[in-house]
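This follows on from our talk about sequence and fold. Please put the record directly below this note.
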Amino acid sequence: MGITVQNITGSTAMVIWPKMASCADTFYSVMYHPNWNSMLSSYSRKSFQKEERVPTTRSSFVVENLTPLTTYIVCVTCQSADPSSDQCRVFNTLERDPASATNTKKELALGIWLTSSVLLLIIAAILLYGCLHILCRRRRERLQGRNGTSEQDHGKSWTKSTAQTSDELGRQSQLMQDTEEKHPGGIQLATIIENPSACKEPVMPTSKNQERVLMTGQRSAI
């Protein structure tokens, strides 16, 4: 068939064959397999790793995804049958292409960068959540402490005011008792002056008041 393999690289190779007018099928079968050893391998279709179907309008095919520095065998038939030795060619792939190596490095670097970015975002989110949780807890504790202090201050002030009121009431009652003991009539007059409605009956003057009234009347008569 005059099969040739051209443009061999570390991962691709172009297979070219002449068109055959006697091919009854509508496609060519391109089969290839790595690590070929003619002494141990046969030309059976089952022994080939991959098989591609190419329309009969074409007479070339680019084999891709090959392994660098590897021996391959490629066969082309015009029917789905086992190929013969004159329908096959053996070739060796080259080292890895500089461009493909650069692309691989770029892809690896991009993958590492993306992974690192995702990890950093996760760590930042965890730290932010922890900080917010701590701040909220401290704020809650401060509010609870302020509320407890205000309640204690309110209780102390209420107790103090109650004690002061009790002391004042005791002093007033003691003062009233002392005044009543010293001036029995004076306390009644003071009570009537402060609260006129507390006593409906007229207050009778004491003996000293009567003497003063009589003395005033005698002076007026003289």
Notes: The longest helix spans residues 98-182. The two ends are 176 Å apart (CA to CA).
